[in-house]
Specification:
The chain has four helices and 20 strands. By secondary structure, the chain is mostly beta strands. The longest helix has 9 residues, at about 200-205. Helix content is about 10%, strand content about 40%. Strands 1, 2, 3, 4, 5, 6, 7, 8, 11, 12, 14 and 17 form a twelve-stranded mixed β-sheet that branches. A hairpin with a 2-residue loop joins strand 2 (about 15-20) and strand 3. The relative contact order is 0.23. The structure holds magnesium ion.
Length: about 250
């Protein structure tokens, strides 16, 4: 299934993508699908981030080449940090940094959207807890991250987490090419087979420590090639089988 969340009279609405259309749902698709009879043209829908996170759990340095470009060896265990729901941004949403930010970076990532409350999940059961996979840009104020010595302020500013355009369970998350483009030029070219901690083990690791709720998001880390963006730039995170998350820096 391929799911979107759209702006709709009366509030945000989940839908299932069928061909060129969206079949709207009367409630989120976490448990079972309840269609409300609506059918809309996908291209006429204003897409929202296809998730409703109470938290966005991110993994730092989960690709060896990226750890090295940041001047460190790959970590021995996953390094987790959070972005707040305030950081959520929609597909096509503008990314804007406060004036005090000196360097704003893109980080293209594969993200997992959770479908069921998850606590002490075992690796082998991970798929029961996953609604699907999507693209995410872990926008980072790099200078602020480095000044602060920890990552909350630099990673979790308003709008620093575009997610979308859709969530799909029709891909193998361990076998996806990921490309980030800046103004049309490829700047990151990774593959999820290179994740140091793959998704099943990541969910076991995270949920041993904290409960994940339906609609929560896990960002799996960025490949090498991170770099800065400036106002006017167009950034795209393109993941095989999912789609392209496009945002403009203003
Ligand atoms: Mg990241």
């Amino acid at each position: 299934m391929r799911y979107v969340r759209i702006d709709h009279p009366g509030g945000p609405r989940w839908g299932v993508v069928k061909g060129e259309d969206v079949l709207t749902l009367s409630k989120p698709p976490y448990e079972e699908l309840e269609y409300d009879g609506g059918r809309l043209a996908l291209r006429q829908c204003r897409l929202l981030a296809p998730c409703e996170p109470t938290k966005i759990v991110c993994v730092g340095k989960n690709y060896a080449e990226h750890a090295r470009e940041m001047g460190s060896e790959p970590p021995g265990r996953p390094i987790l940090f959070l972005k707040g729901p305030n950081a959520l941004n929609r597909p096509d949403g503008a990314v804007q940094a406060p004036e005090f930010v000196g360097r704003l970076d893109y980080e293209g990532e594969l993200a997992v959207v959770i479908r069921r409350r998850a606590r002490n999940v075992k690796e082998k059961d991970f798929a029961d807890y996953v609604l699907g996979y999507t693209c995410l840009n872990d926008v980072t104020a790099r200078d602020v991250q480095q000044q602060d010595g920890q990552w909350t302020r630099g990673k979790s500013m308003d709008g620093f987490c575009p997610v979308g355009p859709l969530v799909t369970d029709e891909v193998d998350p361990a076998a996806l090419a990921l490309t980030t483009r800046l103004n049309g030029k490829a700047v990151q070219q990774g593959h999820t087979a290179d994740l140091i901690t793959p998704i099943p083990r990541l969910l076991e690791f995270i949920t041993a420590a904290m409960t994940l709720e339906p609609g929560d998001v896990v960002a799996t880390g960025t490949p090498s090639g991170i770099g800065p963006m400036i106002p006017g730039d167009r950034v795209e995170v393109d993941i095989e089988g999912i789609g392209v998350l496009k945002n403009q820096v203003i």
